[in-house]
Model the fold of this input.
Amino acid sequence: MKLDKIGIRSLSRLGARGTYGLTMLEMPEILPELKVLTADLCNTSGLDRFRDQFPSMFYNVGIAEQNMIGIAAGLAKEGFVPFVSTFANFAAMRSYEVMRLNMGYMGFNVKVVGLASGMAMGLFGNTHYGIEDIALMRAMPGNMVILSPADCLEVHKAILACAVSSDPTYIRLTGTANTPMVYREDYAFEIGKAIQLQEGQDIALLATGSMVHESLKAAEILSASKIRASVFNFHTIKPLDHDALLKISQDYDFVVTVEEHSIVGGFGSAVAEYFIQRKNTPRQLFIGLPPSFGNAGEYEYLLEHYGLTGQSIAQRVNDVLKEN
Done:
């Protein structure tokens, strides 16, 4: 798959998982050491064509996520670069101990792709929601990199970027098919470097994953109330871009972090941990999911219910600003 042939809009229609599968098709040319593993989720991972075209590089280990990470670690020890995929909740929780030992402690160069993180699994319910994965991956000792792409083009670029990195990496894929586009043309992507998408003088919206698009919508709505908001895409949660956070802390008195993840231990917590160590840092509003289990529902309904739409984010910011 070449980006100029398929087009950014087509990637958006496919969603993050389809984009992952298409990107894998061009990886053998870039990365001859590639191995691709999945836990009985070949079709769900968008990997059907990869399996058919590169059978010697593909392994379906079945519904055995812990074993999959162990196999990938063994391959990495022998010099291969394995990409493994399963639903984010199973990757981050069911496989955590094996990831901790092999990717954290041993530092093996394994790339774990957490599919359908956040609430993208919709009616599958709480057993399939990935709302704690950032917290778990952040807490893991070692050099684990955490990537949270904002849209499908960024999924493509994040995969290519981590393929040439020697660090163990967790890639968190949010959203469903017909993913909203944040980027409509190519751009420079660098692991660990946040991107300012919009400039404003009053507040800063710091977002990751699916919430980048919603934060851009919120900024547009806020502008009608004469609130000028900057929007930053933190596609890398670890290592966090401290240079960007330092400048933000100097330029703004009020910062909003927005994520499709529990507000406990996630992206907002990572930002707060940086701010709390410095003097005269801005006030921070956390927008994310509550640390509780709720009812299942369609993805769009859940975003509305938990206030993770542009309209709800703007209203929440307006309400807080009126209180002060």
Summary: The chain has a mean pLDDT of 94. DSSP finds 13 helices and twelve strands in the chain.
